[in-house]
């Protein structure tokens, strides 16, 4: 059973919030002193309404102490001070490993609060009732519940034995509502430990150097799938993620060109995605490779845009054709004016530089509507579909287009 904790030194405000929350929660605890609140036992299902401005122990100090206690509850931050301070406090809490559902500026609208709380409870109920097939588990276990920690040799063997497979997340044209392309996302189907998600082995691949072979295998699978779809009369552009280590080989453009030629594919059907951080190494070599990739007809996308420190200089120097706005801004844009302003700026910048703009992390109709108003080109996220097997992607497309 979820419990709501209200932590606010203002007696009147805390009473009003408690009265409003009674229609959603059966168990509510109010604390006007954060020190007393921190003595409580918290569960992962609990929700905390935390004011940032308190005299004895302020919200930022409380965030730090909750992190030290490894708090798994969900935070809602509130303050009457400044929206920028609220946003900074939210980022701080996330950096501390805490879960933040929203930040609210005072005075808080009662309907907005109750809708938010109801939504959080509904989401908890949904998560508990569904089998989380697409949500990576924090640990990988075998049938005896012994933790499985993959090694570089395990991953190399998985590549050699073709244990890897690709799922494809649809990207939707926000003007026509048609399928624009897909992003290829790798999975590891282990013969003993079942499905292993990329957050459990991509860091290992990058640290061990296996990422070069892994990316090569992913590109091979994506190109083969594209050729198969083309034979079925379906021309679907596929985006593949590449890392910093992949853009150090001067032979890469020729190798990719030979691969698509062998499969009789248009190189424009392959989009190569890279993050800003991947470009922070030897920029001259990267510029050489990426420019030649464009000359050979491949498309280039800068992923997670807005989270790095060299965005503008990279956009100016490297011939990207697509800009992907980081999902952290997209997911917050409806309730956070600053996130919305960043998304709007990214869209305007991308269009000024003749790039298509993709918003990833679309999870609801409100966000989709706002992105359409801002003239975003392409959308991706669970609002449309989770990553799908090749067969289910074609079924999804058929259902969507009424085929």
Keywords:
Rossmann fold; 5-stranded parallel sheet; alpha/beta; 15 helices; 14 strands; 403 residues; single chain; TIM Barrel
How would you describe the overall organization of this protein?
The chain has 403 residues and is of the alpha/beta class. It folds into 2 domains: 4-129, 3-Layer(aba) Sandwich (Rossmann fold), CATH 3.40.50; 152-401, Alpha-Beta Barrel (TIM Barrel). 42% of the residues lie in helices and 20% in strands. It has 15 helices and 14 strands. It has helices at 11-21, 34-37, 59-68, 83-95, 110-129, 152-160, 202-208, 211-231, 252-262, 283-295, 311-317, 327-332, 337-352, 365-373, 390-401; strands at residues 4-7, 28-31, 47-51, 74-79, 99-105, 164-173, 179-190, 194-196, 238-241, 270-275, 299-305, 322-325, 356-360, 378-380. An 8-stranded mixed beta barrel has the order 6-7-9-10-11-12-13-14, surrounded by 4 helices. A 5-stranded parallel sheet has the order 2-1-3-4-5, sandwiched between helices. Strand 3 (47-51), helix 3 and strand 4 form a beta-alpha-beta unit. Residues 128-139 and 141-145 have low confidence and may be disordered.
